[in-house]
């Protein structure tokens, strides 16, 4: 290789060291690399070893094979690494090491902070490697609570009579597609508006009412048909509309009938969940998040006892490819999940212009078995809210209210995965071991909000002072606090 003099590399007077090369020197290096591959991966044939060394060589000189460097310069470190498509050992389920293996939902918060999910993957030469999939699991995305609460540039259009109520929310920003006369708008208004959401409620008979909605959830319809009286908050939500997922609704309906003192409401909804991050390369390249189908159906009972109104409801939610809003890599084979939520609500008008409200949600979720998802994959979750409101504080028709709430949070359970734990080169078979990902977060978000709503300067005004501890159910995230003001007027 080199010229040595007195044990040191010889350098001439001009500072050059002379290096010599040739097949006599290259052959033993390549042979040594082949021996290392054969020792590390005893399943490889001689032809496969040669193919790996040539494929992983550093392409020096002219692109491709050339007369000086041939197929390139030996790169044994790269030759040891996986080549081609990787998959879970023994399954054939492709799971690229460069992809994220999943994204948690907002109800799971920082559950991945201490998670470990070691498994074995093989490359296209069936060489085995140990990797930790938990390192590529994304935590839940933080919700921007102010998004949509202020600065929405929307208009609300409503109309109704004794039997029918119609309400539309439209976007007047000029960035959406036009609506052709649907809302009886002037032509220039129609060109700048688009229906974002709509709701229709009607009385079919003295004891029966029906409602349907576009791009709004069934919980709002149920509340309207039951005649619920709740204060409106910008940041703190109620528990019965929280399913722990970033979710959008397509269509919903509700039907309520009064049986004596008890009202019975049936409802159903279809929509989509949005992943908390784009875990697929294709989705990243398209610049959008993955969406997955979700549907729900429920029944609620309500009854009033003097100044106390109560409601008890059951809701079933079925998800396609997600688990309480969390999505995992297709190679793991999650087929979706079923959830059951029990909701309890009470409102007490304990004094003139005063109202106390309580609501609580308890959930149970079971992942559908299949692929790497093993039996026993269950979650428990809960959410709650308590609020007190005073009407007619500074004038007629204004409201001052305080709410303390916890968004839906996983309280126990996890996802069981049957993953390859070892690889036998003699039989080219894997041994499997069930591993559990605990999905309950360490943090617990508590939202406190004081809000006022009323008329101000010939317009509708709202002010909010809020404080969130452990935002997004992340223990080590700084508290989120702030003030929000909103004022709107029609002209």
Observed structural traits:
491 residues; 11% helix; mainly beta; four-stranded mixed β-sheet; 16-stranded antiparallel β-sheet
Care to describe what's here?
Helix content is 11%, strand content 45%. By secondary structure, the protein is mainly beta. Helix 1 crosses helix 2 (46-55). The longest helix has 18 residues, at 23-40.
Which helices and strands appear, and what pairs or packs with what?
Elements: E1 4-5, E2 8-9, H1 23-40, H2 46-55, H3 76-80, E3 87-88, E4 102-103, E5 118-122, E6 128-132, E7 137-138, E8 154-160, E9 164-171, H4 187-190, E10 194-205, E11 208-214, H5 218-226, E12 246-259, E13 262-274, H6 281-286, E14 291-305, E15 308-319, E16 322-323, E17 326-328, E18 337-351, E19 354-367, E20 378-391, E21 399-424, E22 429-438, E23 446-456, E24 459-469, E25 480-488
Parallel strand pairs: 4-7
Antiparallel strand pairs: 1-2, 3-5, 4-17, 5-6, 8-9, 9-10, 10-11, 11-12, 12-13, 13-14, 14-15, 15-18, 16-17, 18-19, 19-20, 20-21, 21-22, 21-23, 23-24, 24-25
Helix pairs in contact: 1-2
Structural class: mainly beta
Q: Gyration radius, to the nearest Å?
A: 31 Å
Helix content: 10-25%
What's the total helix number? 6
Overall mean pLDDT stands at 85
Number of DSSP strand runs = 25
């Amino acid at each position: 290789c080199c010229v040595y003099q007195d044990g040191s590399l010889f350098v001439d007077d001009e500072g050059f060291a002379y290096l010599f090369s040739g097949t006599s020197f290259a052959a033993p290096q390549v042979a040594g690399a082949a021996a290392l591959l054969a020792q590390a991966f005893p399943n490889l044939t001689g032809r496969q070893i040669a193919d790996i060394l040539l494929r992983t060589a550093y392409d020096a000189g002219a692109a491709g094979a050339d007369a000086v460097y041939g197929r390139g310069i030996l790169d044994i470190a790269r030759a040891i690494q996986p080549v081609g498509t990787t998959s879970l050992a023994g399954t054939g389920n492709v799971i690229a090491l460069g992809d994220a293996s999943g994204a948690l939902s907002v109800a799971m918060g920082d559950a991945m902070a201490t998670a470990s999910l070691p498994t074995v993957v093989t490359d296209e030469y069936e060489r085995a490697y140990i990797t930790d999939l938990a390192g590529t699991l994304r935590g839940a995305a933080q919700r921007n609570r102010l998004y949509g609460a202020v600065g929405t540039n929307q208009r609300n259009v409503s109309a109704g009579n004794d039997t029918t109520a119609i309400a539309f929310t439209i976007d007047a920003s000029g960035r959406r597609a036009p609506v052709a006369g649907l809302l009886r708008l002037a032509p220039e208004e129609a060109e700048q508006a688009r229906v974002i959401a709509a709701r229709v409620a009607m009385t079919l008979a003295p004891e029966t009412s029906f409602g349907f909605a576009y791009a709004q959830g069934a919980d709002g319809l149920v509340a309207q048909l039951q005649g619920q009286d709740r204060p409106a908050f910008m940041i703190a939500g109620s528990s019965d509309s929280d399913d722990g997922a970033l979710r959008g609704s397509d269509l919903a309906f509700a039907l309520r009938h009064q049986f004596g003192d008890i009202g019975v409401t049936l409802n159903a909804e279809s929509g989509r969940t949005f992943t908390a991050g784009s875990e697929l390369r294709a989705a990243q390249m398209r610049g959008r998040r993955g969406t997955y189908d979700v549907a729900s159906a429920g029944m609620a009972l309500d009854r009033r006892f003097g100044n106390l109104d109560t409601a008890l409801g059951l809701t079933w939610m079925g998800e396609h490819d997600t688990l309480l809003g969390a999505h995992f890599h297709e190679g793991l084979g999650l087929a979706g999940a079923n959830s059951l939520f029990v909701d309890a609500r009470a409102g007490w008008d304990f004094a003139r212009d005063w109202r106390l409200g309580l609501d609580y949600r308890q959930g149970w979720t079971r992942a559908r078995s299949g692929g790497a998802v093993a039996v026993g994959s269950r979650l428990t979750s809960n959410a709650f809210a308590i609020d007190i409101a005073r009407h007619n504080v500074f004038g007629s028709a204004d409201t001052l209210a305080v709410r303390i709430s916890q968004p839906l949070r996983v309280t126990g359970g996890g996802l069981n995965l049957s993953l390859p734990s070892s690889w036998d080169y003699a039989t080219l078979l894997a041994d499997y071991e069930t591993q559990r990902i605990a999905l309950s977060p360490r943090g617990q978000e508590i939202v406190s909000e004081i809000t006022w709503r009323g008329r101000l300067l010939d317009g509708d005004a709202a002010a909010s002072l809020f404080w969130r501890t452990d935002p997004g159910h992340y223990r080590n995230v700084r508290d989120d606090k702030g003030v929000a003001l909103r004022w709107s007027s029609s002209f």
